[in-house]
Write a structure and sequence with these properties.
This protein is an alpha/beta fold. About 40% of the residues lie in helices and about 15% in strands.
Amino acid sequence: MPEVLVLGANGHLGRNLVETLLKKGYSVRAGVRSLLHPLPIWEGRSAEVVQVDILDGASLDQAMYGVEGVFHCAAPTALWAKDARKEIAAPILRGTLEVIEAAHRQGVKKILYTSTCAAIGFHAPKGSVLTEIDWNRETQHPQFKSKVEAELQGGKLAKKYGISFVRVCPPSILGPGFYRSTPSTAPYVGWINGKKIAVPDLAYHVVDVRDLAKSQLHLYEMADVQDRYIVCGPYTGTQEVIDILRRGMPLLKNPILLSSRMLPIAWGLEWIQRQVTGTPRTLTRTLIRECGSATQQLDGSRFLATCEPGWAFTPLETTLWDMVHWIQRSKIH
């Protein structure tokens, strides 16, 4: 099997993607930003672990030398930073363009890029759903805006070089296989560890990280792929998720459900907490304004049309319980 490079191999998706590729027989080069972080369970098996900085062309050249394709899922997941331009925007936008430039220099002809459904939008017109033709051009959130620009500018640059640049847009990514929390998994980590948490009362799609990894491999192996795919699993809501977990863990404390009107109050309390304790923030005014009343209904039929009959996403209950067991077994806090 050919050799491929996974950028962001130490992240939630990256770990699962490397595992999926290895099981399929690929030779995998696993690119990580730092060798100081805990390495995944596949370390020492078949994957070659390399340190790579996506903002450094020379580093990318070395990591990409001799590979056939690249899975680019390296990006900051933080929703807030002191210097958002440096810590969030630059790694997403400039990092993606650097990856494409390095791919051109090294003769790589295919890149699978992990974007986000936030780059598609949060609010469909009444009576309709969001599809791959939709773009969240109005967003001012640094992560979402950078993802939009990375897709658009990256698509143009890849086309110029004759590189297939396939963009995969997932919603909230859940499931096992992470060593530290993401914004999607953090509420579950806190809740399972006995903390009283407050969560927005929203409706949204989720996708099991293992399904997302399999879908990226599937799209990579397809000869005729389009430029953008929504890969989304079940449509659910905060209350349904709470109900599923409390059926199996009745002693869990009931979370505080925050309506869209309560989110600004939560923002203020979190701001005060940061001033006192230095705890990283998760809410910003921009995030509340753009997502506080979101009902992000997505149409994933373009991706499903490429699949064999019988393809099915992992049931929500399975995803949630596998993630809970992973949190408990791995002692993630």
